[in-house]
Amino acid sequence: MKGDPFLQESLQGDRLAVTGGGAWTAAHARALDFQIAGLTRRYPGVTSVSIDMGRVEKLDTFGAWLLEKLVREAEAIGAKAEVTGLKEDYSALIDEMHQVDLEPLRKRRGAGSFVHALSSVGENVASVGGSLLAIVNMFGALVTAILRVLTRPQTFRMTSLVHQLDMVAWRAVPIILLITFLIGCIIAQQGLFHFRKFGADVYVVDMVGILVLRELGVLIVCIMVAGRSGSAYTAELGSMKMREEIDALKTMGFDPTEVLILPRILALIIGVPILTFIGSMAALYGGGLVCWLYGGIAPDIFLSRLKESIALNTFQVGMIKAPFMALVIGVVSCVEGLAVKGSAESLGRQTTASVVESIFLVIVMDGLFAIFFASIGM
Amino acid sequence: MAATDGKRETIIEARGVEVGFGDRLVLKGADLDVYRGEILGFVGGSGAGKSVLMRTIIGLIAKRAGTIKVFGQDLDQLGDDERRAIERRWGVLFQQGALFSSLTVMENLQFTVRENLRLPQRLMDELAVAKLEMVGLDASVCNKYPSELSGGMTKRVALARALALDPEIVFLDEPTSGLDPIGAGDFDTLIATLQRVLGLTVYMVTHDLDSLSTVCDRIAVLFDGKVIAAGTMETMLKSEQPWMKEYFRGKRARAAIGARESALSGNS
Fold first, then answer.
1. Over the stretch B164-198, which tens digit does the pLDDT of each residue have?
2. In this complex, which of B123, B125, B163 lies closest to A29 when CB atoms are compared?
3. Whole-model pTM?
């Protein structure tokens, strides 16, 4: 059974006699392929090739294909090929192999890597445009959904909104508290460490107050929410898309934007400002604690200094930004969710894209807001 | 072939297999023999555990009792390497195809070949095309991803992948489900052809009475956790067991089997 395969050739005038034997199976395909490759090309003058397969004990698809290749190579140099001695059982397999057409395979190899690279650049540029368009599209769908809900308030999915609020806001409170508290501590500690050199310890309070309320509170919260809830939205909507649940909704006469997306985005718009407020307070608390324990600034001094350094508009700047950023995170994650195609890999890719795009857009928006608030003097 | 001579080689032998989930015992001592070179159709009601027995044989579900021998070797007694060697000798077609969605058709077909045999890329490409043609497709689908294939094409590619290493046994889990009658008929013919060409042993879990009556050499029936009958279609039709009577001689069955009977008598 386990006889190693062999292949011997002998030249008889202008006729090449090839004798094959042993097991022509998958396990020996490598060795056989090595022997067959270029065998007939070594005998350019021959007009006929006879292949005696009488001593082949076992043949599978791999062996049959290699035999077929030998025949094709012989025909390629203009010789007549003849296979003899093969067991009757295998004739169907040989016939099957004889019909294999490799032409499309060769054509496929034709396209060069340069063309491939160019086309992939083009596809990427087009896909950026496509996703911008999809975002604008989603805004439009959202506005129409809101208008429709306003005319018929009883169709609004209150249960869904409450459920989403529970998921994105209430359950995020512990992790947001922890992260922002730590960020507040770190800023205060770093500030104290460096400001102390100039004897400007007490200005740490100004820095912590302004930085946290204007920028960091809302940014940290948005980055957390994009990673935590935005990715969840994309994955949920994506797997619903994959399992045709969204199509099912459409056929039942529901608008997926109204049923699935509006409650999710509204939940973010309500949840993110609340989380921003909680997060900012936790960061101030952390900063104050470090100022007291590490910098020797007593809590009452910290508080009175804070009152002097920040105004109401410092707090407002942070809070005004929050709902807009929530909207961007929500829209991007829903657009990416609906862009999922059939495969599991596509779901993963869109979820990654959703988080990366949301965080990127949140930071870009933060920059735009900074310019805006500076120019209106807030 | 081997199926016709008197003493047939048993390639799969299951004895007293018990499988349960929680409190519920799905298989209560199932016995089954599959002979080399035959197409066995395995039937049973929905939820009766047809797929469970198949998945137990291929090792995806743990059994509580009983023995399963494949190629004469008790699967429980094997070490990891021996078990892997046996696994290379069978191929499985899952109900949904289970093609790897992140790989192209070509890469799906080459996956096991690449892992098990060190072959040149060019030869693997050619073999993949050969396998595709054997299942009735051509090289144009090579670069597609599974999500771009239709249901029938997915099944064919999945069958080609199951055949990638030239296995001796192929397990098919409802191969014709989700195909239209013409597609299902073609798929049955394909299985019969491949069985003949490659000398396969086919273990087919199915609901399709047409498949059972046209391509299966033998049929085994699972009822109440046990294999209550195994034999040819004629044996099944003679049975007086109520469930089998309903299954093989009910309204739907008469249409499918009757058509075949009349076609046969018309030919002779």
1. 888 888 898 888 887 788 888 888 888 888 888 78
2. B123
3. 0.68
Chain A CB contacts of B159 under 8 Å are: none
* Domain identity same for A33 and A176: no
The number of folded domains in chain A is 2
Amino acid at A193: F
Min Cα distance B205 → chain A (Å) is 25
Q: Minimal Cα–Cα distance from B105 to chain A, Å? A: 13
Q: What is the pLDDT of residues A248-286, one digit of tens each?
A: 888 888 889 999 999 999 999 999 999 999 999 999 999
**Do A176 and A93 share a structural domain?**
no
- CA nearest to A92 within chain B: B197
Domain closes at, from A109, A139, A173: A109
Nearest to A275 by CA among A166, A161, A164, A173: A173
Q: Residues 124..153 of B with a Cβ closer than 8 Å to A: which?
A: 125-127, 129-131, 133-134, 138-140, 142-143, 145-148
* Whole-number Å distance between alpha carbons of A60 and A90: 8
Indicate the pLDDT class of residue A163, thresholds 50, 70 and 90. Answer: very high
- SS3 assignment for B168-216: CEEEEECCCCCCCHHHHHHHHHHHHHHHHHHCCEEEEECCCHHHHHHCC
B85 touches chain A (CB under 8 A): no
Q: What is the pLDDT of residues A78-116, one digit of tens each?
A: 778 888 877 777 777 788 788 777 776 766 555 678 888
Residue type, A186: I
Q: Do the chains contact at B147 and A341, CB–CB below 8 Å?
A: yes
Taking CB atoms and an 8 Å limit, are B126 and A102 in contact across chains?
yes
Residues A272 and A137 in one domain: yes
